Structures are given as C-alpha cells and as structure tokens.
Amino acid sequence: METSELQRVINWLIDGAWSSKSPAEMTAEACERMVVAGLPLWRFGIFIRTLHPEIFGRNFIWREGEEVEIGTVDFEILQTPQFAKSPLRIVFEQGLEVRGRMDDPASRDFPFLDDMRAEGVTDYVATPMQFLDGSVHATSWTTRHPDGFSDDHIAAIHAIVTPLARISEIITLRRTAEMLLDTYVGNQAGARILGGQIRRGHNDTMQAAIWLSDMRGFTALSDRLPAETVVDILNHYFDCQVTAIRGHGGEVLKFMGDGLLAVFPIDEYVGDAAHVCARVLEAARESRTSVEALAFPVGDVVERFRFGVALHVGNILYGNIGGGNRLDFTCIGPAVNLAARLEKITGRLGRTVVASEGFANVCRHDWHELGEFPIAGFSKAQRVYGLREETPAVMA
Length: 396
Description:
Blueprint: H1 3-14, H2 23-36, E1 43-49, E2 55-63, E3 69-74, H3 81-84, H4 87-94, E4 98-99, H5 111-118, E5 123-130, E6 136-143, H6 151-184, H7 187-194, E7 203-215, H8 218-224, H9 227-247, E8 251-256, E9 259-265, H10 273-293, E10 295-298, E11 301-304, E12 307-323, E13 326-332, H11 334-349, E14 353-356, H12 357-362, E15 367-373, E16 382-387
Parallel strand pairs: 12-14
Antiparallel strand pairs: 1-2, 1-6, 2-3, 4-5, 5-6, 7-9, 7-12, 8-9, 10-11, 12-13, 14-16, 15-16
Helix pairs in contact: 1-2, 1-6, 6-7, 9-10
Keywords: Lyase
Protein name: Adenylate/guanylate cyclase domain-containing protein
GO molecular function: adenylate cyclase activity
C-alpha cells in the first residue's frame, strides 16, 4: 500500500468528497482512489439501513470497470434463507467483522461466498460501519489478488471505514430527511422545507388542480368495526388513490380522517393547465376503479366501499401555517374551500366524481351538467359537472 495515496483517500473523504455529486459517484471515485493507493479491490459494497416504512436498506455495489449498481431491499429480506446465511447478517446483528478467504473451508458456510468464488474472488471482508447514533451499517470488500488481502490491506480497510462512515452518515441523514418529508408532507413540500422555507408566513401563490375526496359511510363504518380494522381499511383505501395521484403528477398534502387533499401544480409559464387537468381526471378514474374493486373481508362479511372526489382548479396559497413552533405545510384559499364544499355535493348526488365549472372548462370532456348549487360561504351559486359515463348511486 502507498501510504501517502491512502492518506489522500482518507483526507478526501474527511473533506466531504466534494468532487462527487451523488452517492453513486462518491462510491465509484472512492474505490478508484483506493485502487490507485494499492488496495487490490475487485468489488466493493456499502449497505445502509434506512428509516423508511417500507425499505430496510439501500446498497451501492462497485465492480472494477463497471457502473455502480444501486439497489433497495424491503423488510421481507430479513425472513429469507439468503439473509439468514449471509455474512452481512452477522455484521448487522452482532456488529462483528467477517473474513472469508476462499481457501478456508469455513467460507463454505456462506452460500454468497460460493458465488464470489465462482467469479474468481480470493478473499472477502465484511466490516461493520457504525454511525454516531449507534446504528450499524456494513461494507464489503473483495479481491481477486492471488494472495488475497494482506495485513497491510486489511489495515487500510480499517483506516478508511471510519471516514467513510462519517461522509455516509451525512449523506444518509439528508436522504432520511428527504424521505421522511416526502412521506409526511409530500415531495414538493419536502423540497421547499429542506430548501429553507421553514418560517411561519413563508408561502407562495400557486395555480393548481385541486383534489379533495372522502369515503362514503365512513362514520357508520367506524362505529361498527374495531379501530384497528378501520385503520387497515383506510390504508388499503388510500392506496387506491395515492398510487394514481402520484402516478399522474400530483402531490398528496394531507390525510384528514377518511379525507384526502392533493394538488397537481400547473406551470403558468408553460400553459399546461389542460394537460394537467386531463391527468387529474385520469387519476380520478383509476382511483374509482381501484376503490370499486377493493374487497375487505371482516369475519363472514366482505366490505365494499364508495368514495367521492371533487376536482377544481385555481390559485392557492401554499406554505407554512400554524402556531408557535408547530407548523403545517399546506394549502389554503377560496379554491380549496370550494373544492371542500363540492366534495360534499358528491354524496348528495350519489356521484363519485364532480367537477367545478372552472375545471370542466379547462379539461375538455363529455361532462354532464348537474345544475347550480348554493355553496356556503360563496355569494354565487356554483355550476357543477359530473361524468356522463357515471350512473348516480341510489342514496338511501
């Protein structure tokens, strides 16, 4: 090992690896620098556990002469035979280093090392990488060098792991913040918050298509079913909408009991209102199909569901609202208020989808005029439209 070159790698990591613009680039550049320093790497892996409701962790795999592979694994991996016999399980669960020289019969205990052996690997090391909060992550190092890793190579790996842990923790913390904000307030709101829009009164005016929906008969459902069952039903019910909303460019801002508020931003400079509203309508149709197909068994009964969604388009105030140091990043304004009032009309008319006159004028479609309705808080009655393809449900 070239000591001065190794120190340059360590200093580069300590300085923040500024020459790399992404975790994948950082992984590749770090490995290439280590090879120049004399570490005979053929494959390197870094495995980061995440704070995410569905994803157990992310991995970045570098191989000599190839692009870095980026992958994610869900929590189900913990129950698989592959993980049970993986060297990484020992690293994660016990915080211990695992060495697997291919000429050592003990390496046969790990099926993964058989795969590495078939690719010409001679030595393997998996090391714990501890963050400041005590959480244990992992790195893996393999070589095809005929003699495997020398003592100097192992010492170099140990010297690199600590600064690698610090820069990895910084990257992970920022990504965790982004994921949590995305999960709890939405992608665009999260980006604005991370960008510094965190004070009460920080807000923008934005033109958007507005989606406001709720489930029919939710109060009665909540009264006759256990709370745990109701929560499970709500999660499945919201899945029917969120997938469609996000798939068509919308952002879910808020869940309110059985209600859902989402916005689809319109770029006033591009003039894409008609395109955005068409995607909103398509999301509403997809959600309608998914909710109609949702069947939830409760004992001997299969519960079926209906919902209503109001679509409107207008200007909203989008930003921080709240009291003291407890803020909510949300949207308000007359356009949101009108959408909320229109949503109540879906139930009265037995409709799944209703649209304001503004939305119907922007989204050219075979709309059916349902009439004019007085709206609480608005001086003028509002003309409401429904989908001609829909047959109104008979209201009990």
